[in-house]
Amino acid sequence: MNSYQSETSREVFYNTKILRKPISGIISGYHQLPYILIAPNEENPSHAVEINGKINVSPKFLISPQALQESFGEVFDPETFDKEIQGRVFSFVHGGRNLKVESEFFRINNYEDRPEEHLNRVNDQLMQQENTRTGLIFGPRLQYYPVSIDRFLSEILDREFSI
User: Fold this and answer.
1) Among candidates 95, 67, 101, 102, which has minimal Cα distance to 162?
2) What is the C-alpha to C-alpha distance for residues 149 and 135, in angstroms, rounded to an integer?
3) Computed from CA positions of residues 36, 40, 44, 45, in that sequence, does the dihedral angle turn out positive or negative?
4) What are phi and psi of 34, to 5 degrees?
5) What's the burial of 160, exposed, middle or buried (CB within 10 Å: 0-12/13-18/19+)?
6) Pick the residue with more confidence: 55 or 126?
7) Topology annotation, domain 7-55+104-162
8) What angle do CA 139, 142, 143 make, to 5 degrees?
9) Per-residue pLDDT tens for 90-106?
10) Which of 18, 32, 122, 147 is most buried per CB count within 10 Å?
11) What integer pLDDT is reported at residue 63 of this predicted model?
């Protein structure tokens, strides 16, 4: 479920493709989730941008109204995405889950490859490495990458809590 009000954010959420989900690194509520997100370059859509990062998700032990809603601007660098979504909170918060989200590592690289080609190459590399920890995400709009990360986290948390 997502609660995005803007049409652009909803479109990004639903058009984000999760190609690989981590099957290790998830321990009973505590997650260390490395990811690679690939999106078209905003200035030249025939080129790819790759974001490497790691998200830590863990239970919160102190509950306060302010602690329940970490915004994208508190987790990610606001200079790296569209200002429209800076105050957004992660969608799984609306499901009543009391979780803390932290971005531990973040790197952006530009590639002259077409986004689909780069995505396939990275997917092949992860398979060759037998990497079961790193998620692979295709984000349709680079400036809305936190929305794509939200989709990635929501799918993993939905899977964990539905068992």
Assistant:
1) 95
2) 10
3) positive
4) -70, 145
5) middle
6) 126
7) hypothetical protein tt1805 (3.40.1530)
8) 130
9) 665 545 555 677 788 88
10) 147
11) 46
Handedness of CA 125, 50, 104, 9 (dihedral sign): negative
pTM, to two decimals: 0.80
Asked if residue 45 lies in contact with residue 52, where contact means CB atoms within 8 angstroms, the answer is no
Q: Where are the domains of the chain?
A: 7-55+104-162
Comparing CA positions, the residue from 139, 97, 98 lying closest to residue 118 is 139
Structure tokens at 116: 């689909």
Output the average pLDDT for the chain.
82
Planar angle of CA 86, 91, 97, nearest 5 degrees: 125
pLDDT in tens, 43-75: 999 999 999 999 887 765 544 444 456 777 777
